[in-house]
Design goal:
The protein is α/β, with parallel strands linked by helices. The chain has a domain of 240 residues: Rossmann fold. The strands form 3 sheets. The protein has a 7-stranded parallel β-sheet with strand order 3-2-1-4-5-6-10, with helices on both faces. β1, α2 and β2 form a beta-alpha-beta unit. α5 packs parallel to α6 and α7 packs across α11. The radius of gyration is 20 Å and the shape is globular. The relative contact order is 0.13. The structure holds thymidine-5'-diphosphate (TYD).
Length: 357
Amino acid sequence: MAATEQELARGTWLVTGGCGFIGSEFLRQAHRALPDVRLVNLDSLSYAASPDRVAELEGSPRYRFVKGDISRPADVDAAMTACAQLSGAGGPTALINFAAESHVDRSLFTGMPFVMANTLGVQVLLEAGRKFVEKGVLKRFLQVSTDEVYGDVHEPHRSVETDPIHTSSPYSASKAGGELLVQAFVRSFKFPAIVTRCSNNYGPWHWPEKMIPLFIMRLLQGKKVPVYGDGMQKRDWIHVEDHAAGIMAALLRGQDGEIYNFDGEIEIDNLSLTRKLLSLAQRDESFIEYVKDRPGHDRRYALDSAKAQRELGWRQKWTLEAGLRQTFDWFVAHKSWLDKVLNEEYQSYYKQQYEVR
Ligand code: TYD
C-alpha cells in the first residue's frame, strides 16, 4: 500500500547529504514545517559540505547527525540504526538521497568520485532500503537528480519527464546511472521510489565553485569573473527554497515510480546573468574575463515543470531579481562563512582550474 501524506509527515526520514547546499535547505524546511517528523542526516562531510548550514537543527531532539559515506554499506547501516533509535521503531519511513558530487568541472578532472557517490552510492542505498521496504518500514525513497540527464536541449523545447536521457559530462552520466538503478528497482522489486530532476539551483549557502556564488564572491573580492566561452550558454535557474519545497511536495504527495521536473521558469544566458551580478556588485563590464570554454559544454538546459505543478500543486515563488538580490545580500552578510570555506582544498582546486584555462 502506498504511503499516505500523514504517515510520512509523522515518520523518520533519512536524509543523505544534509550538510550540502540543497539537502540542508530541505532539512531546515522539514524541521520547521513538520513538528512530528524525525530527521537523520547522513553526510560524509566532503569538501563542499558545511555543518553550519544545519546549525539551527543541532540539539533538536528530532535530529541526529551521522558522519558517513553512502558508497560504504557499513555507514548506511549505521544511519539506519540511528533512524531506528530515533524513531523507537524499525528504521526510516522515508529516504531522501541528496548526497552527490555535483560540480561538472571537477568531474572533468576526475570522474571516479562521481561514479562512487552518484552511481555506486545509489546502489548501496537501494540495497539497504530494500530490506526496510520488505519489513514494511520504509515507505518511500526519493532520488534527487538533475536536468543535466537530458543533456543539451534546443529552442524552443523544454525537457519533459518522458524525454530520453542523453548525458554529456561524467557528472551527468554518473547521475543518470544512479537514476537508472532506481528505475530498475521500481520495475524489478516494486520499490516505492520517486525521481526528481531539477534545473540549476542558487541561493544562500551555495558553495563558491558554482557560477553564481563564485561570481558574487569574486566581485566582492574586487576580482574579475571567468565567463566560459562566449557566455551564450543558457540555464534555467531555480531558487533553492523552491527546489526543496518541490522535493517535499513530491515526497509527500507524489506517486511511486514517477519522475517530476522542477525549474525556476527563468531561462537566461550566462552573460546576461553575469551582467545582473555586476550590477548588484556595482561593477562594470571590465570585470568580465572571457576564458577557455568547458569541454563538452552543454549550450542550453530548459525544463518543463507542468507535471509537478498539476499533480503536486507546487509552484515556484522566487523571481530571479528578488532571488539574486537576496542571495547577494546573504553573501555580503556571511563573509565570515566564505572566509572559512576557502580552505586549502578550495585553493588547490582553483589553482588547477586556472592552469587548465
Ligand atoms: P555551474 O554553476 O557550474 O552549473 P552547471 O554546469 O551545472 O550548469 O555553471 C553554470 C553555467 O555557468 C555553465 O554554463 C558554466 C558557466 N560557468 C562559467 O561561465 N564560469 C565559471 O567559472 C563557472 C563555474 C561556470
